[in-house]
Amino acid sequence: MHCTALSPALSSPSPAAGHAVNMARLTLLLMAACFLLQALSAHAITRHYKFNVVMRNMTRLCSTKPILTVNGKFPGPTLYAREGDNVLVKVVNHVAHNVTIHWHGVRQIRTGWYDGPAYITQCPIQPGSSFLYNFTITGQRGTLLWHAHINWLRATIHGAIVILPKLGVPYPFPAPHKEAVIVLGEWWKEDTETVINQAMQLGVGPNISDSHTINGHPGPLSECASSQDGFKLSVENGKTYMLRIINAALNDDLFFKVAGHELTVVEVDAVYTKPFKTDTLLITPGQTTNVLVRANQGAGRYLLSVSPFMDAPVQVDNKTGTATLHYANTVSSSMASLTLVKPPPQNATHIVSKFTDSLRSLNSKEYPANVPQTVDHSLLLTVGVGVNPCPSCINGTRVVGTINNVTFIMPSTPILQAHYYNIPGVFTEDFPATPLHKFNYTGSGPKNLQTMNGTRVYRLPYNASVQVVLQDTGIISPESHPIHLHGFNFFVVGKGVGNYNPRTSPSTFNLIDPIERNTIGVPTGGWTAIRFRSDNPGVWFMHCHFEVHTSWGLKMAFVVDNGKRPSETLIPPPKDLPQC
Q: Per the database record, which ranges form the Plastocyanin-like domain (predicted)?
């Protein structure tokens, strides 16, 4: 219906004035109803995307190699939607690798078949095949990301998800003049699949990356670069810009800075925050952060920097990726002075703590923080590494990842299919809720560093309130871990240094306005407590978002039962679900 087609009735002649007035009122009512229907339908449209997974040659750091891409782009295309939209993405695999795509942070309410982690919710999309992902953006607005979720393919198969508010709904902060997507990443000169495969065969850690990147480029200060290389952000003096920043790196927590400019944080992981100002962001792999930047400096160019954070004796890529912010009134961009920025020290724990302590949910009437005040299921999960025998490995052993001393073994049949069809022998429901062996978790660890192998899950009833304490361990070395939970947002109600104490630690919890996220960095030698409600039936992966740790087995899954109503029940699998 076109609402303007009704407007001529307002001026149509009539012998009876009263009749004309009634007709005019009726027409106005019809027009109002029509516009309302259009507005409502505009709030929930279906958006169609096609992702062709193809190989492309890319040159970085004076070296060219073929990489896996979506639609030939690195980073891949940005997926735009509004809150409430239905999104259809047809993924076509034109390469020799198996592929899946994960929509990181999208709640996937009742649509776990489309979540994307290989062998957890689906078989991979095999070469020459395709799969139509079909999900609805429910109760979310902000920045998320999509990426491959099999092996290390997400090194180059990744991109942004921008979820705009519903039409007519403003941001809860001053609207920016313009917005820009900034994807942080890593670049290897080697093929990343070769890197991890060799490391797994030898039982040692993989080679670190050769550079950090901003929107796919190491930047103007990198090896072989000119002053004009890399991503450029153009701004006008006096205007405010919103940067949607995503950490798509495989293995590094990252600092982000803009020379000479303050950053106002307004959202993380597609959740609005109480705004606060800082000059340094800390973003772990899988996290997103939206900031406002006021262009209030003089003409010229200003450096953007991305550098690693690591406060443990673990080797990381120490290269700083760069880009430039350009003022529009700069006479010549090639000759303009470049204002540099000094990255934080690599082990700047105090900067990280200050940043994470500043994050609070907006907790307004429109965007409340519905924190579970009671707990039905309480879990204490140790996260770290162990050492298992490996006769073929270089040292006779291999380093493995572990949660509660269980190293997760990927099945050959997806767990969601096994759960839905009651297929026996794929997984067991005996994942321990607490460590089977108690020890000084943040100390040097027990003498026996061997772990148990298994495809173990933890079962939850529908709509239970769940508390999970994630406890780092000091086995081999303490280290921070960015833990990502699929299918849910959670509230970060507490964190601390050392071992979690169930008697005293809860007294420090924030149950009023804790930050709400889908990925959280567990501090080195410390713990983090999260709470969520198990209101999404299906199978939901939880793992470290350092890809090396996921490869080593630092992962597990929750099986969440259906509720009593159809609206609380996992939908049936799609007909084109890939087969193994």
A: 53-166, 179-329, 437-563
